[in-house]
Amino acid sequence: MVLGFRAFQGKHTKRIISHALIFIALLICWESASNFGLLDEYLYPKPSGIFHSFWVIYVKNASIWHHLWVTIGLVLLGFVGGSIAGVSLGSLVGFNPTMRRFLQPYIIVIEATPRIAVAPLLIAALGFGIQSKVAIIILVCFFAPFINTLSGVINVGNDKLELFKSLGATKRQILVKLVFPEALPTIMAGERLAMTAALSGALVAEFIQRDQGLGSLILLYSRNLNMSSAFACIFTLTVLGFFIFKGMEILDRRIAFWTYEAGRIQRSNKKARKTLNLLEVGHG
Amino acid sequence: MNVMESAAMGVKTRLNVNTIVKGQSVTKTFADGSVVALSGADFEIEKGSFVSLVGPSGCGKSTLLRLISGLIEPSSGSVNVKGENVVGPRDDVGLMFQKATLLEWRTALENVLLPTEVKRKITHDDEKRAYDLLKLVGLEDFVFSFPAQLSGGMQQRVALARLLQTGADILLLDEPFGALDEFTRERLNIELMRIVTEIEATTIFVTHNISEAIFLSDKVVVMTPRPGKIASVVEVPLERPRSPKMQTSVEFNKLVEHVRDLLGEF
Ligand SMILES: Nc1ncnc2c1ncn2[C@@H]1O[C@H](COP(=O)(O)OP(=O)(O)OP(=O)(O)O)[C@@H](O)[C@H]1O
Ligand SMILES: [Mg+2]
């Protein structure tokens, strides 16, 4: 039941250049298609129009910034809330076999239900405002950390547990020195999924409550048939999504470093530099 | 069982000041008594001796080690270490498994330090000792490597260093080098013999390999399955220190054949 992915390995300059060339060619085709009337300009704005909108909403009247920060804040709030909920519930259920047996059917039910379907109920219960928006995000992003923490905690190797017991370790030591680090890579994989889900969740929340944020802005621009601005918002989200994805990957590489070749080498060298001299003292 | 062996086992019923580990009709059953892993085992292990347990799969070798280590309790009978009833893991008994069981997020050095860390706060001297142990097992160039950066044999050597770091003077090794190739295994075995002699440890060593058992041991305990029990104990009168060449001697091969016959009887 572990969810996870590893992507975006190494960058190659050559690849980047060829991708850039293809992308520029694509933009030129798109632009000319619009100019020749092959594309409906109202629905599919020209690249030049989108660039212009970027300039307007970012620089000229700088109207997007507020919404951008609102959405980022919402994503982070919801992500942190969902992670805390997921990891703590996952640990709780993981450490408690009785509870696990009892909750098993409900977990399956929750897994099968699209969580977003409950969003209107949350608004009904919590009213309009930031609290229901955050609740929606928590709802959509808590499950991956939950299930991954649960499986990380229950899949701790029996042989490692025996090792700790034979060394006379306390329950607390087993938890801190074994179970938690052992589950960490799995938990991090869950967190990466949660972060992606949080962004989608934030947009849905803003589609439903159109007061502020990028989601409401896209909705507004589309209604006014200001498609080039809507596209500018969407590409903003692309970039945001990319940074979120990258950020989570960097975090994962730092936290679960031992699952990456590069991380192991780096840590190993660092520790050698730091400690070796101390150890060599008195050994000639 | 021939007369000589019965006599050798008979000695064990007498009080022996040199006895460090003692079992009295130790029985261990699993699955509500339906699986008898070990049945009425009586044994005495002399301080500073090297004892091997041999026997086919499922005859209770690991169970016996786990009983001595205090990881599990006997269903009936008792296990004594230094005259004390074993009720749980002890500081003076160390256990090493067939798999290295290293923590992947720790360097070799940090893995070796684990037993100390569980007991108290690490001091600089502890680190030095762990470092020396890694040197001792030939890993001075891999002190800061993570398990994933080490070969299977190296990982096993880290586990051996970790076992020695416990400071235990009774070492239980469950097929410690079983997963390694012949060459590495022999090298590590010789290294192990040298180390345990040096630190005057008592060693109980589980293996499937009869020659290995005889080469290493003062006594070979032959076990048989269903239900698992101790069939006989064979003394190995070969002189120490032992060298690999001894394995071609007539005396050595007679012992191998003898143990093989004992195992074949069942
Ligand atoms: N935790 C357990 N629960 C149930 N049965 C067990 C357990 N541990 C061991 N057994 C049973 O006890 C018997 C002896 O097991 P043990 O692991 O001691 O054998 P072994 O001699 O070490 O075998 P091998 O050489 O394959 O390691 C086996 O039949 C095994 O199935
Ligand atoms: Mg075994």
Topology:
The complex is a heterodimer of chains A (284) and B (266).
Chain A: H1 13-35, H2 47-60, H3 64-95, H4 97-112, H5 119-126, H6 130-141, H7 143-154, H8 158-166, H9 171-208, H10 214-223, H11 227-255, H12 261-280
Helix pairs in contact in A: 2-11, 3-4, 3-6, 3-7, 3-9, 5-6, 6-9, 7-9, 9-10, 9-11, 10-11
Chain B: H1 3-10, E1 19-30, E2 35-46, E3 50-54, H2 61-69, E4 76-81, E5 84-85, E6 93-96, H3 108-119, H4 124-136, H5 152-165, E7 170-174, H6 182-198, E8 202-207, H7 210-216, E9 219-224, E10 229-235, H8 250-264
Parallel strand pairs in B: 3-8, 3-9, 6-7, 7-8
Antiparallel strand pairs in B: 1-2, 1-4, 4-5, 9-10
Summarize the structure.
The complex is a heterodimer of chains A (284) and B (266). By secondary structure, chain A is mainly alpha-helical. Chain A has helices at residues 13-35, 47-60, 64-95, 97-112, 119-126, 130-141, 143-154, 158-166, 171-208, 214-223, 227-255, 261-280.
Pick out its properties.
heterodimer; A: 284 residues; mainly alpha; B: 266 residues; Rossmann fold; four-stranded antiparallel sheet; 8 helices; 36% helix; disordered N terminus; binds magnesium ion
